Amino acid sequence: LPFSGHAVGYYSLTYGTTGAENRFDTLLRGESMAWTEKYWQRVLHLPQTGGDVQLAIDINLQEISQSLLGNHNGAVLLLELSPDATNKAWIRALTSLPGYNPNLIDEQFAELAASEQAPLLNRVTQGQYQPGLLLQPFILAAAVDQEIIALNDPVAEAQRLVEINGKTLGCASPPPEPTTWADVLRHQCPGPMQDLADQLGRSGLEAIFAAFELDRDPGLEIDTTTTADDPLLDPLMAGMGQDNLSVTPLNIGLAAAALANNGSVPQPQLALASTDLEGNWQEQQIEKEPAQVVSADVAGEILRVLGPQDGLSELSTLAISGPEDSANAWYVGISTSEAAAYVVVVVLEGTDQPSHAQRVGRGMISAVKQLQSDSASKMPSP
Fold first, then answer.
1. Whole-number Å distance between alpha carbons of 181 and 152
2. Is the four-CA dihedral 58, 59, 65, 68 of positive or negative sign?
3. 124: closest CA among 79, 168, 74, 88?
4. What is the C-alpha separation between 101 and 9, in angstroms, rounded?
5. Strand ranges, E, within the chain
6. Which secondary structure element, helix H or strand E, spans residue 185, and what is its range?
7. Alpha-carbon distance 17 to 14, whole Å?
8. Contact of 196 with 185, CB cutoff 8 Å
9. Residue 130 in contact with residue 328, Cβ under 8 Å?
């Protein structure tokens, strides 16, 4: 694929390795054997034979995600939560644009590294973005779980306006009167989130962000980046996702996956299996102790508020990303069925149209459903 480099990575004698090429370098080059085996290899003049790695990336969904992004700078992430893989989130598509062709890295590296568009940056795992009201489901889920609020509690002055970087924001759509916390989430009202943030305080918000693992490295096989562990500067802004907490699409995807995973943040995994020294396939194991963030009942409540429509819960919103009214559009979609649950995260840079991100995200959900119904196209299974 022209722009699959961020997941697969590149291998260059001059510029090193990234992505899966870096993580599995010794295995791919056949250097993961014990010293005794290396000794006999040299003594017997046996050729060095590299191993193989099977990634969870689905080639069809990867191509579709790139096509849907089109000319937008941004990222698409698709996670699968399978009942057969407890507490695992398989990465089925990972697209970051602009991208690069790993086969041409030696010829193009200098140009790519100098580009202001940062094509070498993996926006899914390393892009740092203001989340905006994308944090609403997680803050409200924690507040409900801690019995600070209930989703059917009335909310006063839900439609009051707030100012962010000189821009005035209100509800994305008019909520009904009287307004409840469920309506605040459904209609993306920022004012009440300030009130709740004031009630939770800096420590309460930091605890929520830590519980949903929004402030840490998710521990993926390829490089990830998180923000420095600094205290929140302004809790009222943090309650609207507009303080100093910036997140990657992977952070958001895993937090959203917790809602579909009975309230527990799953472990992301890119590699399904690899070959051993005898050439036999062995399942890749990355273990993580499940940590309950909120109860399964509360997670289900939040999903129901965000949908479901045909099994789809979703949220699309705008985040102010800096001065001069610059903004990014976000989409999160959670599609659940008896067979599996899928989480789609989309971020589009420099646009004030959340509907554009929604179009990309819904396109990915449709593609997943199409592949599920097509018996000739089977996704790789753990």
1. 6
2. negative
3. 74
4. 9
5. 11-12, 16-17, 53-55, 74-81, 88-97, 154-155, 162-164, 167-169, 179-180, 267-269, 271-275, 281-283, 312-320, 327-336, 341-349
6. helix 181-186
7. 9
8. no
9. yes
| Residues 39 and 58 sit within 8 Å (Cβ to Cβ) | no
> Sheet harboring 74-81: ordered strands across?
267-269, 88-97, 74-81, 341-349, 327-336, 312-320
On whether the CB atoms of residues 314 and 334 are closer than 8 A, the answer is: yes
**What's the token pair of residue 202?**
């800096």
* Local structure of 285: helix, strand or coil: coil
Q: How far apart are CA 172 and CA 193, in angstroms?
A: 14
Distance CA 215, CA 196 (A): 20
User: Which residue type is seen at 243?
Assistant: D
Tens digit of each residue's pLDDT, the chain (382 residues): 445 568 777 777 787 777 766 667 566 555 555 555 555 555 555 555 556 777 888 989 999 999 999 989 999 999 999 776 678 999 999 999 998 888 888 898 899 899 998 988 899 999 999 999 999 999 999 999 999 999 999 999 999 999 887 788 899 999 999 999 999 999 999 999 999 999 999 999 999 999 999 998 888 877 887 766 678 999 999 999 998 889 999 999 999 999 999 999 999 998 877 777 667 777 777 777 778 999 999 999 999 999 977 789 999 999 987 556 688 999 999 998 877 899 999 999 999 899 999 999 999 999 998 887 774 445 555 5
Q: ∠ CA 134-136-139 to the nearest 5 degrees?
A: 125
Compute, in degrees rounded to 10, the torsion defined by CA atoms 250, 254, 257, 259: -130
Q: What is the pTM of this model?
A: 0.89
Residue found by looking up tokens 């959670």 in the block:
334
Please tell me the distance from the alpha carbon of residue 207 to that of residue 257, in angstroms, as a whole number: 18
- Cβ atoms of 8 and 19 within 8 Å: the answer is yes
